[in-house]
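Q: I'm writing a short explainer about ORF2 for a general audience and would like to include a description of its predicted shape. Could you first generate the structure from this sequence?
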Amino acid sequence: MSEPQRLKPVFPQDPKWPGEGSSRVPFWAYTREDLYKRELERLFYANHWCYVGLEAEIPNPGDFKRTVIGERSVIMVRDPDGGINVVENVCAHRGMRFCRERHGNAKDFFYPYHQWNYSLKGDLQGVPFRRGVKQDGKVNGGMPKDFKLEEHGLTKLKVAARGGAVFASFDHDVEPFEDCACTTAR
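A: Of course. Here's the predicted structure. Afterward I'll give you a sentence or two in plain language.
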């Protein structure tokens, strides 16, 4: 495993608070966009496991639950092999959310506008008119000749399930869940 990333502190090394104590935390500490983005990165996206749901919420193949990690929409789904996957709810084509339901059952996922189709494991399965449309003897549109489905899947999160609870991380280099300080039972 690689060396853990060192995260920048959210606040300056030696913040200057006007007055004494924490009852007078300045307004900027709650409203500065740069601090908020660093908090999101530190608490949800890097070097961190986040709870996404319970295995019991998705008992059957195709069952899914939409939830969020930080500000990012994710889908926890049971695949046909019985495995649990967590993927970001953002189409790889145009970056739009494709799943609107909070929970349900699906044989696959697709982006309603352009119809890109993904497996329950997040792999891109199909693109309509991939080779273009032939009209008047010539081909219009389509994807480039070097376009590869396997390079355009959904963002897949690292997943750990323990005691019926499911955790996920955007950071694939995050420490193993068993070594995480968040686990209490060993």
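A: For your explainer, you could say: Residues 54-179 form a domain with the Rieske Iron-sulfur Protein fold (CATH 2.102.10.10).
Q: Perfect, that's easy to follow.
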